[in-house]
Amino acid sequence: MGVDLGIDGRHALVTAASKGLGRACAEALSAEGAKVFISSRDAAAIERTGKAIGAAGWQAADMSRPGDPEPLVKAAVAKLGGLDILVVNAGGPPPGTFQATPLEGWDTAYQLTLMSAVRLVHASVPHLKKSGQGRIVFITSISVRQPIPNITLSNSLRAAVTGMAKTLSRELAPDGITVNCLAPDNILTDRIRQIAASTGADPEERIKQMAAAAPSGRLGDPSEFGAACAFLCSRQAGYISGQTLGVDGGTLIGVH
Q1: CB-side exposure of 115: number of CA atoms within 13 Å?
Q2: From 15, 60, 100, 213, which residue has the greatest number of CB atoms within 10 Å?
Q3: How far is CA 140 from CA 59, 171, 230, 241, in A?
Q4: Are 126 and 74 in contact (CB under 8 A)?
Q5: How far apart are CA 93 and CA 57, in angstroms?
Q6: What are the distances in angstroms from CA 248 to CA 153, 174, 181?
Q7: pLDDT tens-digit profile of 171-228?
Q8: Which of 68-82, 191-205, 207-221, 236-250 is the least confident region?
Q9: Half-sphere exposure of 129 toward its Cβ, with a 13 Å CA cutoff?
Q10: Using 50, 70 and 90 to split pLDDT, how confident is the model at 2?
Q11: Which of 26-29's residues contact partners 24+ apart within 8 Å by CB, and which partners?
C-alpha cells in the first residue's frame, strides 16, 4: 500500500508546466490526486500537456510580463475553487558569462526570474491563507549554493528568489503555509540541452560528459524531481519550511 501524502483533492497551480521540471511537478501532484491548474507561454503546448496529464485547467501566461501572473492566479482559483499549493517556475534566463551579458539582459532576467515569483506569491497568499495546508515551492537551481559557470543571470537572480523564500517561510508560518525551494542540477530537460549547446561543444557529447561526471554516472529524470515536489507539498512535510532541497544526485560539494 502506498503512502498517502494528503494531497488528494488539494488545489494546485504550477507555472511554466508545458514541459520539463514544471510538467514533472504537475504530473506528480496530479498522480497524487491533486486538482492541478497549469500555465505556459505557449497556448498550444499547455493545452496538449493539460489534456495529457488530466489537468483541471490551463491558461497561457507569460510569467515575465507584468500583468500576467495575477489574472492567472485568479483564473486558477476560480476553476479549482481555491488554492492550496503554488509551484513557482519560470524557466531559466539565457546562459552566458558576466562580460558577455548585455545590461538590458539583466532587466529581462529580473522580470522573468525574480519578479514573476514576487507577483505570483503576492496574488496567491490571500488564498493560501485559507487552505490550512498551504504550500509554496520555488523551482530554483543548485547554483544558489554552488554557482555554475556560464549562467551568471541564473546564479544571481535565483539566489534572490531563495532569499525571498527564506524570509517568507518565517512570515507565513503562523498561517500554516510552508515555503521551500527545489534546487535541481543536471535533470535531463531542454534547459540542460540549452546550457550544453551554449558551451560551443557538441550538445549530445557535452550531455554525456555531464552524466559521466555525476556521482551516479547519470543525469536525473524529471519524474524524480516531480516526486520531490509532491513530498514538499504533502501533509507529512508540514514542519519543513525555509529549506532548499537539492535534487542533484549528490553533485553539490559544499557542506550546509
Answers
A1: 14
A2: 15
A3: 23, 20, 16, 15
A4: no
A5: 27
A6: 20, 31, 13
A7: 999 999 999 999 998 887 777 777 767 767 777 888 888 888 888 888 889 999 999 9
A8: 191-205
A9: 11
A10: low
A11: 26/53, 26/55, 26/87, 26/226, 27/53, 27/223, 27/226, 28/223, 28/226, 28/227, 28/229, 28/230, 29/85, 29/87, 29/226, 29/229, 29/230, 29/233
Can you say whether residue 111 is alpha, beta or left, with left for phi > 0 and alpha for psi between -120 and 50 degrees? alpha
For the whole model, what pTM was predicted? 0.92
Cα dihedral sign, 124-39-94-190: positive
Handedness of CA 126, 128, 132, 136 (dihedral sign): negative
Q: What DSSP assignment string belongs to 68-118?
A: SHHHHHHHHHHHHTS-SEEEE----PPPB-TTTS-HHHHHHHIIIIIIHHH
Other beta carbons less than 10 A from residue 229's beta carbon: 29
Q: Which amino acid is at 189?
A: T
Per-residue model confidence (pLDDT) at position 1: 52
User: Is 210 in contact with 165 (CB distance < 8 Å)?
Assistant: no
State pLDDT tens for residues 18-40: 999 999 999 999 999 999 999 99
Count the Cβ atoms, other than its own, within 10 Å of residue 43: 14
C-alpha cell at 109: 532576467
Q: What is the distance between the alpha carbons of residues 103 and 134, in angstroms, rounded to a whole number?
A: 37
